[in-house]
Amino acid sequence: MNLLKKKEAKKTEQEKVEERREEVLATGRKFKYPLQWTRHRIVINTILIAFIILSLIIAGGWFALYRLNMTDDLLFRVTEVLPIPVATIDSENVRFSDYLMFYRSSMTSIERQSGSQFDEGSVEELRNEYKRSALSESEKYAFATKLAKELDLSVSDEEIQKEFERHLNIGGIARSEESFMKIVETNFGLNKSEYERMLYLTLIKSKVSIAIDENANKIAGEVEKILAESGDDYRKVAEDLGEKIIYEETGGLVDNKNIDGGRATEAFTLEPNQSSGKFVSMNGDGYYFVKLINKTNTEVNFVSIKIPFTEFDKRFELLREEGKINELISIEDPSASKE
């Protein structure tokens, strides 16, 4: 006992302080480590809950898009941000947002009139028809985009803006951008960026069609030659080329804002007996030649020649026959329900 007391007596004040400090720290660790463990569990649980919620949102979105085939505004906005495919064509993804954009632009005016002009059965039938049409259109534009990459073709922002400005003056009426976009939004449910997307797709498909359709370019050269030699005699072109071209007469005055691929608009810029020369249709499906007969302040009478682009559609249908178009949604065939 004496020895122990001596050893304790020999401890300095500093050693005693250190011992006391260690006792306090040891006591504190009993509370510290359980708290750290609890925080760790909270972080893990939060991550797990967030992951589960995100998984449910993704699963719900997938089910809504790919199984229920929903087309509401929220899903449309999501597909505009995320590059979600609705189909693939020759290994090229078809954007879900493009499909919904085409469908919604077609159905907007129909759905607004559904209460007075269409019954619910007719509207549902139209929905299926427009969904089928929208999916086919989006597949064609995706194929055009793929070919454009291979052919090193592109559409600049300046070209899109020029085409947009041309649309502002369709029918010879100068419209402000604001008034034009109100018309577009009311009738097609599109904002400016979506409308410009449509213009881009139309322009790129048109460029591709022109580049690959050697036959159409050859026929256009023949038309130009006959017109030059005959003094712009459109009937002679029809007689000489027959089924190679499509010859049409309005047979009288029509509205200069007539929806006809841009022919009436082009004719309105001409003088009587003046020919337009070759130009590409507004939807990019062929070449047009237009000759004005006469016009008033709001109407035109003209004859026209169309040279359809056929090579693009031939290649597209070949891909379908070869099974290289894989659609990720199921749409009821409208023609089957009518039989």
Molecular structure report:
This protein has helices at residues 2-10, 13-67, 73-81, 96-113, 120-151, 157-168, 177-188, 192-212, 214-230, 234-241, 263-268, 311-321, 334-338, and strands at residues 85-89, 92-95, 246-249, 254-255, 279-280, 286-295, 299-308, 325-327. The protein has 339 residues and is α+β, with helices and mostly antiparallel strands. The chain folds into three domains: 23-68; 72-213 and 316-338, Orthogonal Bundle (Triger factor/SurA peptide-binding fold), CATH 1.10.4030; 214-308, no CATH class. The strands form two sheets. Strands 3, 4, 5, 6 and 7 form a five-stranded antiparallel sheet that branches.
SS field, number of helical segments: 13
Describe the biggest sheet?
5 strands, antiparallel
How would you spell out the order of helices and strands? HHHEEHHHHHHHEEHEEEHEH
Percentage of β-strand residues: 5-15%
CATH architecture of the largest domain: Orthogonal Bundle
Layout: helices, strands, pairs:
Elements: H1 2-10, H2 13-67, H3 73-81, E1 85-89, E2 92-95, H4 96-113, H5 120-151, H6 157-168, H7 177-188, H8 192-212, H9 214-230, H10 234-241, E3 246-249, E4 254-255, H11 263-268, E5 279-280, E6 286-295, E7 299-308, H12 311-321, E8 325-327, H13 334-338
Antiparallel strand pairs: 1-2, 1-8, 3-7, 4-7, 5-6, 6-7
Helix pairs in contact: 3-4, 4-5, 5-8, 6-8, 9-10
